[in-house]
Each structure stands twice: as structure tokens, then as C-alpha cells.
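> run fold High affinity nitrate transporter 2.5 like
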Amino acid sequence: MEKSDHDADTNSNPPKFALPVDSEHKATVFRLFSVAAPHMRAFHLSWVSFFCCFVSTFAAPPLIPIIRDNLNLTSTDIGNAGIASVSGAVFARITMGTACDLFGPRLASASLILLTAPAVFFTAIANSPVSFLMVRFFTGFSLATFVSTQFWMSSLFSARVVGTANGVSGGWGNLGGGATQLIMPLVFSVIRDIGAVKFTAWRIAFFIPALMQTLSAFAVFFLGQDLPDGNFSQLKKSGKKHKDNFSQVFHYAVTNYRGWILALTYGYCFGVELTIDNIIAQYFYDRFNVNLHTAGIIAASFGLANIFSRPAGGMISDIVAKRYGMRGRLWALWIAQTLGGLFCIMLGRVGSLSVSVTVMVIFSVFVQAACGLTFGVVPFVSRRSLGIISGMTGGGGNVGAVLTQVIFFRGSRFKMETGITLMGIMMVCCTLPMAFIYFPQWGGMFCGPSSKAATEEDYYMSEWSSSEKEKGFHQASLKFADNSRSERGRRVGSETTPADQTPSTYV
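> ok
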């Protein structure tokens, strides 16, 4: 098929970027301390906004001992509120994925953050178990910004560094789950020391995460950019990006079994992380009789491990892929998540405070690394339906959190330490289906590539009909297929580079 005039113009006068880019203008390097537009600026906007949403969603757990006395919450009320905080994002994440595919991550993210911010403000006026549950439920919708974060990074960074970009952005966003364990008790203490009674101080404290979340939404909207070449709306108006058919995007997402397996396995790495964020402060407070401040610090250490653990998972995914390709990514994910499950089992079994804290920290490293490793695989499942696949996987994390809390941490059916042990067993079991993920062009954990000489083009072009190809709608997928050859691992070195490949572009 002949190239369009636009393609010819783009190749003869390529746009300039601060980072080296591939033929899709995705950055081929990841420079953490750069704020260059559009790639690194979007990275920083995405993780900061996701961080603020995490702070808001988990602002209540570190203050539960105060809130439960004020609102007369029972253990069942607390468990239900914790479930509510992560259940809303199940469908919100799938919806967010669809919104990213159709409208772009910038608009989708900013809109959701602004829509959920009022729920954080309204937490200050909660006066019953029901109203407390409702504000936690609606605040939890904001966690769907994780999907826009991963979609955004996958749209701006090339295959060789996409695991790192996804891992660092997701990990640093998840830091909010640990930071809030420090922020909220500190803000509460300051407000109380100024002169407010404790039942008023906790309410005022919620204005801090609410303001953080609101400001982050405006930053994303006014400073961010959807794609290397511009925003979705601008590119569609100029004809540089076609308006995709939602039914087709949805079809190719839900019929790709790899997305469903990743949704299941993510349910027992990120889902477990969400569960721990909800219960760990109370666990140490009740089981080891530590004070509220100490329980908050211990709980914070779990979430704060995200500063390096989830990013490390993404980086490891990219590193092993250079030598072993997609098969290396899958094996690294399975190993990390299985080890996380084993340490989770140990956490529920040990009875010493010091040993429990040590095991919890080691457990946090592996479970969070598994989250980063998961999104080293997700961008390759589908090019056309990237948003929905990301949403399905992210939603799976929330489903796992809901099921785990309903089964093990709601009411008094299990002691909390027993629930933690059983959760670890589920982690190990639900990681096993990863062995069934297979890419014809790259292979799977136990099998090599198809003997039928399948190529990246065969895989990604299968998402487009003949009529769509005739209109040139598949061109972006074709470029992505070419840039994904690195997933062959060390075999890629022996492959020839297509003659018409667009050279990297520098400033």
C-alpha cells in the first residue's frame, strides 16, 4: 500500500523531540529527571495525579481508630467501607480504558479526578456508617486513573523501555498508599494541637487530600499531551488520527484471552496490595498493641516500598526482554508473584513484631514488583485495544481486592492473621494460569514461537479488517509491530531491519 501524503511529509520533515524516538515518535529512552515535553512531562503528570488519588482513597484507614469511635463503626462497617473503596474502581477502570481509547488519557484522567474530588471533601461531613461507606466508595473511583497512567506511558514510550515507564509511573503513584499513612496522622495531629477536638480534627484533615487531587486534575488537563504528535481531538480534526469503531475495539479486547489471564493474576498482586493498604495499620494496632502513630509508620513502609519495588519490576521486565524476549517477561512475572505469595503466607504465621515488619517489607517488594512486571506484558497484548486491555487488567486488580476482603477480612469469620495467610495461598494459586499465555510470534513460558513462522505483523494486523486496511487505519499498528521485534529477545539481532523503517529523531 502506498504511503499517504501526510506520511511522506512526516518522514521528510520529522518533528523534533528532546528524547530519541522510534517510528511512532515514542521515546526509546527513559530519563527520570527530565521534564521534557511531551514524553517526560506526561510521565510526571501521570504519576503525581495517580499519587494524589491514592492518598485520597486510603486517607481513612490510618485514622480508623478515631473515625470508628466518632461514627460508632463496627468491624463489619469498617470491612464494608474498605471493600467499597476498591469496588467502585472495578468498572471505572474498564470504562477508563474505553475512554482512553476513544478520547485520550489526558481528558479521561482529568475528568475522573475532578468528578471524584467532591467525595473526598464530603468525607468531612460523614455522620454515619452508611455515609462513610458512600464517600469511600465514590472516592475509590479515582483509582481508575491508574489505567490512564499506564495507557499514557504505553502511548509515549517504545517497547524497549515501556516496562520501565509503566513501572515507575505506577509505582510512584502507588506511593500514595504509603504516604497517606504518614500524611493523615501528621495532619490530624497538627490540627488537633492547634486546638480542634479530635472528632473535628480528622474531618478537617480530609481537605488536604481533596485539594491535592483537585489541583492535579488541572495540571493534567492544561499541561499534558495525549500522544507524541498532539492530543486526540487535534489529531482527529487534522485527519492524522482516525476515529476508531468502539464495537471493534471492544471486540478485540474481550476476545483476547491473554487479557483475561492478566486480569486474574493482577487481581492477586495489585489486589493484594490494595487489601494490605486497607488492613495493615489496623492489623499492627490491634495484634501488637502499638500506638496509632507507630502503626501508621509500619503501614507506610509497605506502601512506600513502591518508590523502588514496582519500578524495579518494570525495569527487570525490560532487562530480561533484551535477552529472553517476551518469554523472559512472563517468567520474571511468575517468579516475583509466587515469591510474594509465599512471603504473604509467612506474614500471617509469624507472631513477633520485629519479624512481622521484616517479612512485610520483603513481601511488599515482591508483590509490588509483580505489579510492575505485569504492565511490562500488557502493552503487547493488543495495539488497537490497549486501553480496554489495560482497563481489564487494572479492574482485575480491584476485583481481586474486593473478593479477598469479602472472603477473609469482612466481619469476624477469620482472624486477620489467618486471612493474610489464606490470601498468600490464593496468590500462589492464581499466578499459575500465567503458563497459558502464549504469543505465536514470541512463545510462552514453556513453548517457543510458532513453527508457522508467525510475525509481529501477523499478530497485530489480525485486529484490522481488509476494508480498514485499505483505508490505512492499520498503519499505527504496523509501526508498533515493527518496533516490537525486540520482544524476540536475542533472536532479534539476526533479523533484518525493514528498509522503510523511520529513523530515530533527535533535537
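The chain has one domain: 35-227+242-444.
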